[in-house]
């Protein structure tokens, strides 16, 4: 029996765009340090958790759902189990996810589900862990989970999970081209490593401790879309394009139709186009839809995981 007295808790958590992503050299443990500028955007996962004797998950939503596991490997169930183990809670939870963030799209949808589930179970069960401890559990679930918790605009270093908030002004307008296929994050990193090994003679070795460039921080601070368009960068874009050459055509189409710049989001395959205002975003959405791409609009930054009243 829960101690909060609630029948269910509903949490909304956002997807994200990495407006800057630099990947460091492989370290001795075969990991990369990264430097990421995260922006939470207005594509939300809706997660509703209710009391149940065991752990189960049900998934609906507006995006292709076939790649979402429905067993204990679902990151939402892993999040609920982790919180139960940490707090000694002996019951279970039924988790309903309404997905709007593309699956394996490089926008952190699974991470948003995990952050939302942690927050919802904590409220439903009345375990009331301090925020720092919830963030600690978030970190154990995945490098992008703490950001789904905090939202807004943040810089992630280390594995991407050492977060510091970044100053940001205004609202940025995005048009997102969603792909029918997914790209595996480990496969994209492998492709990058292989490229770096193959061309070791011709390219500068990667910085083991990368950082976010000053012009990105300045653009975010100024809320200036043109400045951000010039500063955006993603080290995973070239390997993602190598694995999926069709993404190059998507990038070109967006840039021909008024986008200030396009970038592969995280490990892809979602392509995010930055526009100067809402009108250009609408025009770009129409043009890309006419070319039979599946597109949605989003704005950022938005808040992180939050309980909402039903
Ligand atoms: P990131 O940008 O954080 O690397 P992503 O956006 O590319 O992630 P997600 O959709 O967050 O990808 O996660 C995809 C992988 O996680 C798939 O292998 C999928 O089977 C598995 N997965 C586990 N739980 C979930 C979930 N709740 N939603 C989506 N994918 C999940």
UniProtKB/TrEMBL annotation:
Catalytic reaction(s) noted: 4-CDP-2-C-methyl-D-erythritol + ATP = 4-CDP-2-C-methyl-D-erythritol 2-phosphate + ADP + H(+)
Domain GHMP kinase C-terminal positions: 217-290
Domain GHMP kinase N-terminal per the UniProt entry, residue ranges: 74-152
Chain sites annotated for binding ATP: 102-112
Record: active site: 16, 144
EC number from the UniProt entry: 2.7.1.148
Transmembrane segments: none
Keywords (A to Z) from UniProt: ATP-binding, Isoprene biosynthesis, Kinase, Nucleotide-binding, Transferase
Keyword Nucleotidyltransferase: no
Molecular-function GO terms, alphabetical: 4-(cytidine 5'-diphospho)-2-C-methyl-D-erythritol kinase activity; ATP binding
Functional description taken from the UniProt entry: Catalyzes the phosphorylation of the position 2 hydroxy group of 4-diphosphocytidyl-2C-methyl-D-erythritol.
Name of this chain's protein: 4-diphosphocytidyl-2-C-methyl-D-erythritol kinase
Taxonomic source organism: Protaetiibacter intestinalis
């Amino acid at each position: 029996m829960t101690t909060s007295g609630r029948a269910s808790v509903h949490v909304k958590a956002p997807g994200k765009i990495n407006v800057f992503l630099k990947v460091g050299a492989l370290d001795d443990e075969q990991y990369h340090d990264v430097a990421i500028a995260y922006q939470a955007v207005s594509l939300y996962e809706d997660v509703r958790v209710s009391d149940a004797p065991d752990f189960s998950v049900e998934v609906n939503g507006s995006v292709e759902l076939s790649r979402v596991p429905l067993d204990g490997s679902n990151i939402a169930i892993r999040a609920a189990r982790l919180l139960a183990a940490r707090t000694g809670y002996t019951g279970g939870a039924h988790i309903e996810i309404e997905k709007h963030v593309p699956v394996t799209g490089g926008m952190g949808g699974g991470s948003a589900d995990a952050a939302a589930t942690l927050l919802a179970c904590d409220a439903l069960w009345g375990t009331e862990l301090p925020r720092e401890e919830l963030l600690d559990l978030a970190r154990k679930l995945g490098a992008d989970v703490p950001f789904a918790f905090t939202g807004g605009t943040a810089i992630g270093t280390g594995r991407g999970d050492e977060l510091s908030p970044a100053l940001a002004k205004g609202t940025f307008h995005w048009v997102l081209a969603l792909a029918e296929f997914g790209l595996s994050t480990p496969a994209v990193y492998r492709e990058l490593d292989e490229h770096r090994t193959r061309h070791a003679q011709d390219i500068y070795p990667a910085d083991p401790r990368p950082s976010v460039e000053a012009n990105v921080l300045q653009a975010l601070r100024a809320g200036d879309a043109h400045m951000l368009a010039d500063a955006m960068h993603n080290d995973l874009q070239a390997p993602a394009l190598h694995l999926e050459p069709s993404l190059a055509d998507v990038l070109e189409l967006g840039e021909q139709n008024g986008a200030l710049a396009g970038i592969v989001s995280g490990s892809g395959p979602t392509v995010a186009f930055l526009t100067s205002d809402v009108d250009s975003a609408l025009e770009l959405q129409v043009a890309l839809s006419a070319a039979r791409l599946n597109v949605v609009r989003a704005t950022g930054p938005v808040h992180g995981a939050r309980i909402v009243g039903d």
